[in-house]
Every structure is written in structure tokens, then in C-alpha cells.
Amino acid sequence: MKYYSTNRLTPLVDFKEATIAGLAPDKGLFFPDTIPAVDRSLINGLRCVSNSEIALNVLKPYVGDTIPEGDFQRIVTDTVNFDIPLVSINHKISSLELFHGPTFAFKDLGARFMSRCMGYFAQEVSKKMTVLVATSGDTGGAVANGFYDVPGVEVVILYPSKKVSDLQEKQLTTLGKNIHALEVNGSFDDCQRMVKEAFADNQLRDKLFLTSANSINVARWIPQQLFYFFGYKQWPSEKGLPIVAVPSGNFGNLTAGILARLSGLPFFKFIVACNANKSVVEYLRTGTYTPTATIPTISNAMDVGNPSNFVRLTELYGRNYAAITHSMKGYTIDDIDTQYIMEDVQKRHGYQLDPHGAVAYCALERYLKHHPNRYGYLLETAHPVKFDESLQQSSTLSPELQHKIADLQNGKKQSVIIDPDYSQLKDFLMR
Ligand SMILES: *Cc1c(COP(=O)(O)O)cnc(C)c1O
């Protein structure tokens, strides 16, 4: 399989080239030139197939011969080595829990796959490979954990000082070894601007092999379609085709679901669940896409006014608006309803949602109200303890999770404090 750039000014590349480049040279996003069909017999027999076997079958065509069979098998098995259970909340709605990975967020799966592929390719690159990433919270932790101890790759993470949660900061700063945390006296936007300046700095790029680890990278985007295969594997067939609600920010997760659908996985509909940052919901309603400034909300990992994967959404359906709106329905949920749903679902069903999952629950519930014969599940993208520190003492946490949290809290924070000034980042990288 080859990848083209959505701006169409870059020659076709293979998986290796697309992964180590991140963004295409013409600033477009890489996109597979054909979407492979998954074997019908695999889909029909999904229940009896292990997650690593599913992953191997689904992902193999995307990687082609850029990674030899044995290495690829090892990467895939390592990527999916945690539980992804479908848990029933009530008789209409279930939750696909994507948070049982090392940093309690769904980004673990994509980050694990990408870091291992990148580690494999780093052996073939002569310069030292440096992954540079700005984070507002979840991405940094998943990337740090994914790349920890991967030979030949250094990771530099910029995060805004005092603007990430304690647990998130620990996930960024306590690993050490090849993971370097830069604590910036500024905002997330400052961090992002400095990273962009580094990518545009030729003197720096002469010395280092610089690459990014955000969700535009195909190696992070493509494996996320596995969630939907694992969801379908556990879905009770007597409930008919599922309605799947996806809490969305940059739209990597949702567009990966569409990839699964176009590969042959059955769905009834996608529910696009957004907070007040609703540019895609408005697009679905009106046909006009207007990026907006970011609005802060309590589901902050979804605070994105101009989602980077929007172009992939339209690309997947050949830029056909009617086809896009046929397969999904969008909802925007405000903070008041999100908060209410978290409390109400806990009270009535004894299930603790996190704010991102609550947005999806609320959107799904609204859809099901008008479609009483349908059933659905939401993607629960993070564990609630990540966003509510009072839950860390909760006696309902599994001993395994209590142990993981205690380990993090006891870890020693190691960060280098810098000002929001590019020259300080450059000095660090050139050291
Ligand atoms: C990143 C993130 C999202 C949004 O996912 P996208 O793929 O960017 O749409 C939702 N929930 C949580 C907890 C996240 O960390």
C-alpha cells in the first residue's frame, strides 16, 4: 500500500516514509491510496479470534513489507496487550472501555503502535531520531510511555507549566531515560508554536532527525480502527447493528472508525459527540466548514476548534457530503449537561463516566430517544480518575489501578523549566 498527501503535491510514499515524516512535505496529511477489504470470514468469526490476531490481519496491508513479518507480529502483540472490555451501563447503552492501557487513555494504543514502528525504522536512520511533541495533557503521557526505552529514539515533550493535572504531569516527568520533559512558563499555544518553529529550523534539522508524534501521523491514526473491531467482537448480535458514539476533538478516533467501516465492519451509524467546540457538528448540519477559536470546556481533550483530521473525514467519503451525513449524526453537548450526565449515570446505574465519555453518552442517549429500537455503545476514552482527583481515593478502584496510581504519585518529577522563547528550546535540542 502507498500513501498520498491530501494536498496532492507530494509523490506517493510507503508506510515507513509516511511514518517518519509525520506530515507530508506539502503540509497535507498522508492517506492510504486504497482501503483494503477485511476478509468476510474474519468479521463473521471475530468472536473466536484473539485481539492480536485481529490486529495483525487488519493492519498488515497498511504496513506492507516495510516491517518484516516477525518484527511486525511482535509490535502488534505488544500494542494490544491490555483489556478493551465492552461493559453494559444499562439495557440500551454500553461503554467500550479504552482506558486500561498504561496511561489510562485511549491514546495509549496508537502511541504504542507508532513508537514501536518508529523504533524499528530508527535503526535504519543515520542521524539521532528526536520526537518533538507539545501536549495539553493526554498525548504527552501516552507518547512518553510508548517511547520509553525505545532504542535510538529521544523524546522531548513540551507542556504548559501548572496547566496539566497532577497525574498527567507525573506521567510526563517521572520516566527519565530517553524521555525529556520541558516545562514551559506559558500556554499550550506557546508550546505548539515553539514546536512549529523547531520543525522550520534547517540548522536544527541538519543536526537531528526531527519527527512528530501527534495524531496526524498514520502510525498513530490507523491502529485506532482496532477499537471498533474489538467493540464489534463483543457486541450482542441480537441487538442489531450498533450505533457507536465517539467523543471527538481532532477526529483521529472517529475517522479511524470510518476506515474500519469502509473495510467491511458493520455499523448502523456513528454519533459524532462534541463539546462546545462544534465546527464539525455545524458542518454536518449545514454543509459549510468554518474553523473556530478553541473554547475551553471540562472535556478538555476535545477542545479543538479546527480539527486536524477533518480533511481525512471528507477524503474517506470522496468529499461527498451526502455520503458523510448518511453515515453519522452530530451533537454538541455543553458543560452543564456533561456534568449532569456524569452524576446521573453514577446515581442511576452505578457507572462512573469521565467528562469525555459523558459527552458521548449524552449524544447517544439523544439519538436513541428518536430511534427506540436501536442499541449502542460509546467509546470511553479516558479513566475518570484522570480528571477527578477525588476519585483516586475511591474504594471502587481496582487494586491494580490503585497500585499504578501510587507508583506514579511516588515517582520523582524531573523537568527542565524554560520560558516560552524558541531559543531556549533550540539550546536544549542542540546540547
Ligand atoms: C484525545 C482525546 C479525545 C479526542 O480524540 P480525537 O481522536 O482527537 O478526536 C477524546 N477523549 C480523550 C480522553 C482524549 O484524550
Q: Would you give an account of this structure?
A:
The protein is α/β, with parallel strands linked by helices and 431 residues long. Helices cover 43% and strands 14% of the residues. The chain has 19 helices and 13 strands. Strands 3-4-12-9-10-11 form a six-stranded mixed sheet, with helices on both faces. It has a five-stranded parallel sheet with strand order 8-5-6-7-13, with helices on both faces. Helix 16 (335-349) crosses helix 17 (355-369). The model has no long low-confidence stretch (mean pLDDT 94). Bound molecules: pyridoxal-5'-phosphate (PLP). Residues 105, 107, 138, 215, 247-253, 301-302, 356, 381-382 line the site of pyridoxal-5'-phosphate.
List each distinct ligand once.
pyridoxal-5'-phosphate
Residue ranges: pLDDT <50 for 5 or more in a row? none
SS summary, helix count: 19
Number of strands: 13
Strand order of the largest sheet: 3-4-12-9-10-11
Strand content: 5-15%
State Rg. Answer: 21 Å
pLDDT average, as an integer?
94
Q: How many angstroms separate the termini?
A: 39 Å
Globally, the shape reads globular
Largest sheet: 6 strands, mixed
Report the structural category.
alpha/beta
Percent helix: 40-55%
Write the layout of secondary structure elements.
Layout (H helix, E strand, L loop, with lengths): L2 E3 L9 H7 L8 E3 L7 H5 L6 H13 L5 H11 L6 E3 L4 E5 L9 H16 L6 E6 L3 H10 L5 E8 L5 H8 L5 E6 L3 H12 L2 H6 L1 E3 L6 H4 L4 H9 L8 E5 L4 H11 L6 E6 L4 H8 L23 H7 L4 H7 E5 L2 H15 L5 H15 L6 E5 L18 H12 L5 E3 L3 H9 L1
Parallel strand pairs: 4-12, 5-6, 5-8, 6-7, 7-13, 9-10, 9-12, 10-11
Antiparallel strand pairs: 1-2, 3-4
Helix pairs in contact: 3-4, 4-5, 5-6, 6-7, 12-14, 16-17
The site of pyridoxal-5'-phosphate has 16 residues, from helix 12.
